Automatic annotation (TrEMBL), chains A, B, C:
It comes from Paenibacillus agricola. Gene3D superfamilies: Macrophage Migration Inhibitory Factor (3.30.429.10). InterPro entries: DUF1904, Tautomerase/MIF_sf. It comes from the Bacteria. This is DUF1904 family protein. Pfam families: DUF1904.
Length: 111, 111, 111
């Protein structure tokens, strides 16, 4: 955590930008880069009777960090995605609860 | 948004029904069809020691629209899925918050 | 439901352990094993400029069952994952609402 689950952007493009992107996002979160997971999903998208390119979308799963941090995170992440030539991207933050997250069987809020 | 994330139904089947389905769902949401994303996920499912077909399941990610709209949306979506010969399908609605959703770096509730 | 959405663990490994795992999890939930879905997702992960193995992660989507059941569920699930040689795994529980879940178009809390 945080976990970036990506659709509609090739993993190869994300790989290119991943190092500076993670460094900036980790600084915003005040955690190490090794807390992050970046997973690109295989999807097939359809629209109006056609197969279409999947719209670039990133779901960020994390513990709530407040509006200011979220705004900065979203701005930085979007900047790096734009920098690899993806002109439009939407982000949604999904909140995991610390009492419903387990690392090797141990509840996070008890660690 | 709304975003339909589908597992257990081939994209090709969804493609066939996508145009009338989107028109009906967009009318229920009072938005344009181009607000929708339909993404079919690659999954491998297992049950009781066997590989099995993935159970047809659709997660709808959207902003909360209330029970009446949700009921109508679920009924219409299910009808279209049944019409392509998928006899059983389950739907779950996942709520994104307008203050935690970003389009090109800009927070949705400020757009 | 419950629905286990898995990334970073091959479906073949999950298949091997699925029968005893489901029996134990179903006993904890006091439901039948046939209520469960186990879906392994295709992902490509990156980190720090490299393609990397996806970190083992399971999202459990269910209706809220309280802390004690969740702790037991997490402990049992983790035990089975460790038993197939996956040394590290993280779990997150995602709550679906009974009034936003539909089976064949019928709202769950009305069934």
């Amino acid at each position: 955590m945080p976990q970036l689950t990506i659709r509609g952007i090739p993993a190869e493009r994300i790989r290119e930008v991943s190092q500076p992107m993670l460094e900036e996002l980790a600084a915003i979160c005040e955690c190490g880069t090794d807390n992050f997971m970046i997973d690109c999903m295989e999807t097939t998208s359809v629209f109006a009777g056609q197969r279409v390119d999947t719209y670039p979308f990133i779901e960020i799963s994390w513990f709530e960090r407040g509006t200011e941090t979220r705004d900065r995170f979203a701005f930085a992440l979007t900047k790096h995605i734009h920098a690899i030539g993806i002109e439009e991207v939407e982000l949604a933050f999904k909140i995991y609860s610390e009492d419903a997250y387990y690392i090797n069987g141990k509840r996070f809020n008890l660690l």
